[in-house]
Every structure is written in C-alpha cells, then in structure tokens.
# Entry
Amino acid sequence: MTPFAVIITVLAYFAALFIISSISGRKADNAGFFNGNRKSKWYVVAFAMIGASMSGVTFVSVPGMVGTSSFGYMQMTIGFFVGQLIVAFVLVPLFYKMNMVSIYEYLEKRFGMESHKTGAWFFFISKMLGASVRLFIVCLTLQLLVFQPLGLPFILNVIISIGIVLMYTFKGGVKSIIWTDSLKTFCMVVSIILCTVFIAKEMGLSFGGLVSKISQSRYSRIWFFDDANDPEYFFKQFFAGIFTLIATTGLDQDMMQRSLSCRNYKDAQKNIITSGLLQTVVIFLFLTLGALMYLFSDEKGIPIARGDALFPTIATGGYLPTIVGILFLVGLVSCAYSAGGSALTSLTTSFTVDILGIKGKSESQVSRSRKTVHILMAVGMGIVIFVFNLLNNTSAIDAVYKLASYTYGPILGMFAFGILTKRQVRDKWVPLAALVSPILCFILQTNSARWFNGYRFSYELLIFNALFTFVGLLALSRKASKAKA
# Structure
C-alpha cells in the first residue's frame, strides 16, 4: 500500500470517529464523563465490549501467536469466560450496591484511604503501561507505512496519535467511548471476516476447504495436556485466563466503567455475559485467520511473516488485493485508537476521583481538574510510547500479559481479601504488602526452573502475585467485631 492510500483510509475512519464522539458527547457533564449518567442500554454496551478488551495488540499479535502455540490461546479464552461469570455475579452486584464512580472506592470503604490509593496507583501504572503498549503497535505500523516513507520522525507519529485520542475523548468520556467502541467492534469483526474470505479465495479454498486445510495442518492444535512445564499447558492457561479476566476486567476501571454505565446491575450482568460469549467467538475467528495466513505464507514462501509481523506483512505487502490492506488498516486503527481512548478516559476518572478526590468540590472545580488530568494523562502516555520505541519491545501480546501479572496481582489480592474475609487490616501498611508481592513474584519467576525441576511460570504468575498480597494482608489484619460493608 502507498502512504497516500494509508492516509486516506485512516482519515476516513477518523472522520467517522469524530462524528460519533461529537454526537454522543453533547451536553456531557462530569457524571456523563465518568459513568454515562447510568443511562446506557445493556445491549449497546455488550456490543461495544466485544471489542473493548481487544486492542491493536490483539489484532496484530493473536493471529501471529498461531505460529508458536497453534490454537492454544483458546484454552486461556475459555478461562476468560469463566472469569466473566465471576465478575457478573460477584463484583457487579457489589459495585452497584455501593453506588461507586470508581471501583477502587470499595477499598477505602472496606479498609481505608491508604488501601484506596494503593489500588488506584497500581491501576494507574497497569493501565498507563498496558495502554501504551497497545497504542505503540499502531504507531509502529503507521511509521512503517506512512511516516518512514515520507521521512517523518517517530515522535511526530506519537504526537499526532495521542492528539487524536485526546480530542475525541476530551468532552464525552465514557458516553463517547461506548459508541466509538461499537464502531470499533463493527470494523474489527468485518475486517477479520473479509480478510479471511479474501485470503481463502486467493488460495482457491471454499468454506469446507478452508476448514479442512486448517484442521489438517500443524496449526490446528488446541489442547496442551502433556507437559506441565510447557507455558501452553492447559491448566496454566485456563486458570491464568480466569484470574487475568477478573483482574483486567472486573477490577479494571477502564472495563468496569462501561458496565457501571448501565441502568442497573441486572443489565450490567446481561452485558458482561453476552459480550463474554461473543468475545470467545471473535478470538476463534482471529486464530482461524492466523492459521490461514501462516498456510498462505508457507505456500508463497514469505519467511519474514512470523509473529507480530505476520498480519501487517501479508495484508500490506502486495501479496493480496489492496482491499485486504485497507481492511487490515481499518481494523488495526479502530482497535488501537479506541483502546487508547478508553484507557485515557479511565485513567482520567481514576486519577481525578481516587487520587485527587472530588468530595466537597463543585461541578466546575471537578470539571477543571478532570480536563487538566486528561491532558496530562495523554502527555504521559505519549512519553511511555516513545520510551517503548527506544527499548524496541515489539513482542506485544506477551508484554501486555506479563505487565498484567505484576501490576494487577496486588489489586486482585486486595479485592479478594476484602470480599472473602471479614478481617480488618492495618491500613497504613497495605502499600508495603502490595509492593513486596511483585518483588517476590520476580524472584520466583527468575528462579523457578532451578527450584522446581524445570517449571517455568507463564501468565499464571498473576495468581501467585495476588496470593502473596492476600497473605501479606492476612499478616497485617486483625479480627474485627464489626467489619466495614
């Protein structure tokens, strides 16, 4: 694809994005920004959330994963759905009952202010790093397709990308995010299906032929039960999927902010279960596309098309009709910018509500604080993306889940302790327990092969991180005659 074709495609998507965000953001006040005034229809949120947890990382990396783990990612995806059920029936009723703007307010009501701020800071670190990795992927792709051929620097790429995300989320917040996420879901699903159709046609495959060719290939394996030391081992992936979903959806302000915009908790539950089922189907479509692209790559002798380079190389490298490259770009850009926008909105919400505080402030004071924070969060995200580029870290999907293992673990442990026990903690020492846990996990991961007969931790490290935090809080706790609600 030429830089001109890429620019036209991206500008057309942005035009649609700004029209939707402008309409949805009309008359948006602080409550509209934070929780959509609790007026969102559950089926609209469910459709939006199909793509909400999928970013440019998912779009590029999940098809590429097929080369090393076949369809093994489905094991983790099944765990995701079990996690969705736990979020729907345990966390959602709790959050609605407490009528919270930020989910980390629960920690203050349960333990105290230090716990509240600890949870908020860990979320801030998690989301800032995770969202930056996701947006970094689209910046890399645009650099290769547009900015580099035109002789423009990466820093300009980052500034433009962050500026776009900032502009369309600045006013409407979560109200805009839900509708732009719906656009993202539509673009992403259409891109996957049509890319699959065009590649299959190029290979002369009917639907039956496509199914047969993939199922008979070395890329079709789903279940890994034979080696417990293998990172793809079923129980590692399954349980990691459950706890990763709980941490990165149920205990993530970004994801829960959408569900908390529904009218009531029953609507929020319907939204989460429906979107969970549909996300499972969409991930299977991603993996199917990945297997087909590897078969196409093998057939055409494209040796560089591996891992994260697979989809961009095949879609935009002139091996297929131009429409495939356009579909790839639309899907990638919709995923990446929507994910960046929702992350920026949730970071602004959490920092404004949890860390700065809004109690006792007027509507205008909160609005000024929110707008200032929104701009600063955008600048911070841009800096992190630029640093990622300097580090040359392009193993994106792996990086996201590894970051989640370290940063979401303490949040998961704190919420688990609060929900599963009636004990009260010494609030001022909670930050220490939350900081020690990731350090212990790092030591455990570094030495696991030597200590445990070759066993290497994968994403299940998140579970141990949460467990260490839970044990730390237990050591800091005392039995309370009357626990907080």
Notes: The chain has a mean pLDDT of 81. Residues 143 and 154 are 7 Å apart (CA to CA). The beta strands are 424-425, 477-478. The two ends are 58 Å apart (CA to CA).
